[in-house]
What does this fold into?
Amino acid sequence: MTPEFSIEFFPPQTAEGVTRLRAEREKLAALQPEFFSVTYGAGGSTRARTLAIVREIAAEGVCAAPHLSCIGSTRASIREMLSEFATAGVSRIVALRGDLPSGMADPGELRYANELVEFIRAETGDRFQLLVAAYPEWHPQARSPEADLQHFAHKARAGANAAITQYFYNADAYFYFVDKARAQGVEIPIIPGVMPIAGFSRLARFSDACGADIPRWMRKTFESYGDDAASIRAFGLDVVTALCERLLSGGAPGLHFYSMNQSTLVTEIWQRLGRKG
Ligand code: FAD
It folds into this structure.
């Protein structure tokens, strides 16, 4: 099976950001990914912006997969969003729970992603391909690794077609997670999420919050470069390309790049992997 490659964006907050993203997207479209995905703010906070970017991508002739999170939402608002996605010609959705934004207390009518997957299937049958999130280093709020795995298996059985992982830099965590999921009878493709490294301090903060581990040998090497952006970039590219190679040669069904709305690192990793474009 040929590995599937996909690329994720977030909806910019300003008109300049939207224009910049258009230019980055054009460069990335040349790599011919399977789809572009667009994140979605919890409680529908980016609803209009996500939809606008999805419509633009579809008009550019690339398959657009919006993310959809259920926390803080009602069934009626999710139903409305599904109808908007269908009208925009969407065929894939990344279905998530999301996280409650600070200051928002009402968790909404669907508490976990498995309930969202069940709801979408009940409302729209097989109209959409559904992708869900997976956490090889475990979700930060999980009671235990075992409980998280059970919840993941439950979510897959609710009707997911595939999963995309949180990013990680330790390939063994991914392979271990896939083995554990298979032992639970979960057969859907589990696509590694890949975060190219543009700078170290922001990545370190972000990784702490989302529960992704930066191995000590990587952390120490980045720290040793101080403000030397060129060395950080070069080391980051080497590490992430080697990770991708190991994942693909170990049987990963594809790669999903967290682009952070930038084309250069994804393009360079792609070319180093010997892909087209
Ligand atoms: P769930 O699968 O519902 O799991 C959340 C937690 O609840 C886990 O700890 C799980 O073990 C536990 N759990 C699950 N089911 C149950 C149950 N029945 N009983 C008790 N506990 C349970 N966030 C956004 O806001 N917008 C985005 O666009 C977005 N895109 C993402 C894309 C990917 C590929 C990934 C990996 C994450 C993304 N996120 C996004 C972040 C995600 O929303 C958060 O990680 C969120 O905290 C969990 O969402 P989930 O869908 O994995 O939740």
